[in-house]
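Subject: sequence -> structure tokens, single chain

Hey, anyone have a minute? Need the predicted structure for the following. Not urgent.
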Amino acid sequence: MTEGQSTPDMALPDKVPVTHYPPSTLKQFRRMRDQVSRKEYAKYFHEDLYMYSDIIPAIREPLAPEQVLPLKDISRLLEPGYPKEGGENGRCALSDGTAYVASNTRFPGVTGEMIDWWFWWHSVEPERYALWYPYNHVEARSSFAASGRLHRDDLGHREKWLGSTHRVTEFIGPYHKRIRIQFVEPHDQPCFGGGLTPEGLQDAGYKAAVCAVLWDAYLPLKLGEFVHLWREVEGGLELRSRYWLGHQVYLKLPGVKLPLDYLGGLLGIKRMLAGEEIAYEQFLHDQIEFTNLARILPGLYAEFGAGCVNRK
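Reply:
Had a minute. Here:
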């Protein structure tokens, strides 16, 4: 992909195999392989994972500070093409400890409906979540599960995940993480500044959007944000992801929001939450998991999702 081009296309370079897996993730793979083997979708559980070869340079060197997209400028993702200053793929740690990641992955043969289906379907049971990244994904539990909402045929795919919170356990590189992912409409959230409206996304060619606020697994502690935006290109979609980790940290108490961002940066707490290591590992994680999802999603959807009701 050439950054700065005005018209995106689906150019697919060679894939290279992922060969490094920390011991903890190898153990996770073996556990999940045994569990998934009893499921009807077991053939989508792959031992061999890949990345595209043109991503390798972005792994070797961090982004420059001027290539970081501030969250307040998120509406720039509605502009055609790619950033003229570069920065479509990569990661860096900001001076206050915030980890920033930009990642572009290809989704040939995938539609927006498949994406909306996947984001509720994978949360029904841990084995489904493991298909996405067999070495690193442990489980994702939806707050909608207890009510039976995930199995209601009168709801569309998007209604089964938007507004929910997923309690996620996974590995980011060797780091075992537990977080809460609160899926939101970005134009309704002050942290996104109203910069991604449904009309703006549609006009920019996006066919699916998944935006979230990240929270500590146990404390009412806000940890960051991410956006996943699938834009139509020749032959399918491209996913443009952005993460701001350890960003605008605050404690949400009854009736009050206690900002911890400045103090957290000063004391080095944000570097413990995010920082350079997490920025690097999150970029790798994103590239691997979404390249694999693109590989399995068309078949999974055709076999298990195409007959679902999908009312807008």
